[in-house]
Specification:
The protein is of the alpha+beta class. The chain has 12 helices and 14 strands. The chain has 3 domains: about 45 residues, Uridine Diphospho-n-acetylenolpyruvylglucosamine Reductase, domain 2 (2-Layer Sandwich); about 110 residues, Uridine Diphospho-n-acetylenolpyruvylglucosamine Reductase, domain 3, CATH 3.30.465; about 100 residues, CO dehydrogenase flavoprotein, C-terminal domain (Enolase-like, domain 1). About 35% of the residues lie in helices and about 25% in strands. The protein has a 5-stranded antiparallel β-sheet with strand order 4-5-10-6-7. It has a 4-stranded antiparallel β-sheet with strand order 11-12-13-14. The longest helix is centred in the C-terminal third of the chain and has 22 residues. The structure holds flavin-adenine dinucleotide. Keywords: FAD, Flavoprotein, Oxidoreductase. GO terms for molecular function: FAD binding; oxidoreductase activity. This is Carbon monoxide dehydrogenase, medium subunit.
């Protein structure tokens, strides 16, 4: 498994990376940690004659928590997410999820930006970003813009990002309530058969707000407004959880593959959601 020949670039500024992208057009691709892109190149499923490595661009790094606003540079690695005490306070669901991605070697290189820009339905961070209500900052030849995570994913490997744009930062509000990321996988290091992200807040013994997103159960991550609504005003008891599971089931669209048939995936999705709600509620 050797990739086709390519030219390698390591720009030190966003402007230089953008101009390389413009110069080489469809023949160029940016690389973050390379742990999704390089395997695709080795398998010859992606041919990238001009590979633009983002590692040396300082503007893409750093985790900032400013009051209630969290901002993570696209080149922050999954390992850095796990190690960040600021993120542990402001969005602990990220650490819980990042620890379930692959293995330490992958997490030392794989970035949060690459995980969402990739558009792979099996990636864990897209659903979590939808759950958190994150916004993605993009820079391109026409300047900068932001796209909500809930509007970013269009189909498998297709996102609202254009080929000339670079994802720079991910921003979302800090979350102080209960949280859980529950992932079912065939073995350690595997992508999810099904995973559920749940954030909720409790007031006076009932659920005041909830947000729910599911992973690898459709071509895109599924932010299920209906499942979250089923918890509103309830004590997240078994009846409310059953309603949330039924609502979520109506929103997902899993396909049969080597992780199992559709009925199995729907079953596993329900179990992961039920466990995630129960754990999030116990922490709220
Ligand atoms: P890259 O591979 O460098 O890039 C991925 C794609 O995103 C490319 O198309 C690239 O052009 C684009 N891109 C990257 N950064 C930017 C940017 N800033 N702006 C615009 N486009 C950009 N992931 C999971 O979520 N869950 C898992 O369980 C999991 N298991 C894995 C197991 C193994 C053995 C391996 C090798 C990988 C696994 N992964 C898993 C994937 C891993 O998390 C990847 O590192 C991640 O998905 C992509 O991040 P990256 O930084 O490596 O991106």
């Amino acid at each position: 498994m050797i990739p086709a020949a390519f030219e390698y670039y390591r720009p030190e500024s966003l402007q230089d990376a953008l101009s390389l992208l413009q110069t080489h057009g469809d023949d160029a691709r940016v690389m973050a940690g390379g742990h999704s892109l390089i395997p695709m190149m080795k398998l010859r499923m992606a041919e990238v004659p001009h590979l633009i490595d983002l590692q040396a661009i300082a503007d893409l790094r750093g985790i900032r928590v400013d009051g209630d606003t969290v901002s993570i540079g696209a080149m922050v690695t999954q390992h850095e997410v796990i190690e960040s005490t600021d993120l542990l306070r402001a969005a602990p669901i990220l650490r819980e999820a990042a620890l379930q991605i692959a293995d330490p070697q992958v997490r030392y290189m794989g970035t949060i930006g690459g995980n969402v820009a990739n558009g792979d339905p099996g990636n864990d961070m897209p659903g979590i970003m939808q759950c958190l209500g994150a916004e993605f900052s993009l820079i391109g030849p026409d300047g900068t813009r932001t796209v909500a995570a809930r509007n970013f994913f269009e189909a498998a490997y297709m996102t609202a990002r254009t080929d000339e744009e670079i994802l720079t930062r991910i921003t979302f509000p800090a979350h102080a309530g209960g949280f859980a990321y529950e992932k079912q996988k065939r073995k350690i290091g595997d992508y999810a058969t099904a995973a559920a992200a749940v954030l909720l807040t409790k007031e006076g013994g009932t659920c005041a707000t909830a947000s729910i997103a599911m992973t690898n159960l459709s071509d895109v991550p599924v932010w299920s407004e209906a499942a979250a609504a089923a918890l509103d005003g309830t004590a997240c008891d078994s009846g409310a959880i059953a309603k949330a599971m039924a609502a979520m089931d109506g929103d997902i669209d899993p396909g049969e593959d080597n992780r199992g048939p559709v009925a199995f995936k729907r079953h596993v999705a329900g179990i992961t959601l039920s466990r995630a709600i129960t754990r999030a509620w116990s922490r709220a």
